[in-house]
TrEMBL record:
<protein>
    <submittedName>
        <fullName>Uncharacterized protein</fullName>
    </submittedName>
</protein>
């Protein structure tokens, strides 16, 4: 199933998420602000809701979503990506509304071969229209540095996400059928 994971790696891969700024803004713990949506025992909250752990094994990945929707704001996440040979594994976080003309902002970290830079794949959907994909090769920390800006160009007919509140989602999953180290 996950042929790209080397036998030397642990049987369970972990993604650790700490979402400090959202907890401060909402005044609660991760338990109060997020629901684990899939993955059974592969996802858990520890330290009284201060840390959320997503795991991936040969059977499935795992994920969570926010209990609330947000129209605007700032999201800070600390992610620990899968180490070693993780080609085909996607660690993502995205915001998405519902419906046929949904808005969505995607950040997907594609697994890599040991020592290679991580690839950050991003896409923006506005009013159900996407195809605004970009990839970035990350060899270093990007703390506090904007990676991508999507400016409001409604004046020239480009849809812009501003009217639909979105939930925060974060999955860890096997995507070796498309998320291998290739350029778009």
């Amino acid at each position: 199933m996950i042929s790209s994971i080397k036998a030397s790696m642990a049987s369970m891969l972990h993604l650790f998420l700490l979402i400090d700024s959202l907890m401060v803004a909402s005044g609660g713990s991760l338990n109060e602000n997020f629901d684990i949506t899939w993955g059974d025992h592969r996802a858990k909250m520890v330290n009284d809701g201060e840390l959320l752990i997503l795991s991936l094994d040969k059977a499935s990945g795992s994920g969570f979503q926010s209990k609330n929707e947000y129209l605007f704001g700032k999201i800070d996440m600390q992610l620990k990506l899968v180490g070693g040979n993780s080609t085909g594994i996607v660690t993502a976080y995205y915001l998405s509304s519902k419906g046929s003309t949904w808005d969505e902002i995607d950040f997907e970290f594609l697994g890599n071969l040991s020592g290679d830079p991580y690839i950050l794949h991003s896409n923006v959907f506005s009013q159900g229209k996407g195809n605004r994909e970009q990839q970035f090769y990350l060899c270093f920390s990007v703390d506090g540095t904007p990676i991508r800006e999507f400016k409001n160009s409604e004046s020239i007919g480009v849809p812009f996400s501003k009217n639909q509140p979105m939930r925060i989602y974060s999955p860890l999953w096997n995507a070796e059928d498309w998320a291998l180290e290739v350029d778009l």
